[in-house]
Design brief:
Elements (H helix, E strand, L loop, with lengths): L15 E11 L12 E9 L2 E7 L15 E6 L5 E8 L11 E9 H7 L1 E5 L7 E8 L32
Antiparallel strand pairs: 1-4, 1-8, 2-3, 2-5, 5-6, 7-8
């Protein structure tokens, strides 16, 4: 009786896992004159020596300590260096380009550092103040529980008095 299992993200040649990154910032610079900064975080991945934007958080108005609700989903490939760059901007317009927005700092790191730390907290670079906090959570696609039953038949009696107490060790 063979059981079929659905394919998983990883394979024997490149095991991987799907993860969610949740981002927060603390003590961001205030670039607005009459209100607080309106931060957004853009995530870039390095591919063949070039940075490519792959995701953005939502835009939070008037907040120097944002907790972004939108998680960023990524595939973490084990034993492969995946370079990431998180750029924080103060958005004060409706354009999709971030080139015309105020820069609030950046962090360049490896995805493996974030995953192994669980909660990765670093000072933003390129500005005088600000911290970024990135939390990694592995996504589970299956909540399958395996139940294993075993019995022993015809086992040798090893005790002098009473019955043997056999056990199975994995």
């Amino acid at each position: 009786d063979k059981m079929a299992f659905p394919a998983t993200i990883g394979s024997a040649s490149s095991p991987s896992s799907e993860i969610n990154l949740t981002i927060s910032c603390r003590d961001l610079a205030d670039k607005d004159t009459f209100s607080k900064s309106d931060p957004i975080v853009a995530l870039y991945v390095e591919e063949v020596g070039k940075w490519r934007e792959i995701a953005r958080t939502e835009h939070i108005k008037n907040n120097l300590n944002p907790d972004f609700a939108t998680p960023i989903q990524m595939v973490y490939t084990f034993e492969v260096v995946q370079k990431l760059k998180f750029k924080v901007f103060d958005v004060d317009n409706t354009t999709t380009s971030l080139d015309d927005d105020d820069f609030l700092g950046e962090l360049t790191c490896n995805l493996g550092n974030i995953v192994s730390a669980g909660t990765y907290k670093q000072t933003l670079k390129g500005v005088r103040k600000g911290t970024i906090i990135i939390r990694a959570e592995e996504l589970s696609h299956s909540k399958t529980v395996f139940v294993f039953h075993s019995n022993g038949l015809g086992l040798d009696k090893k005790d002098f008095f009473g019955k043997s107490d056999p056990y199975l060790q994995f």
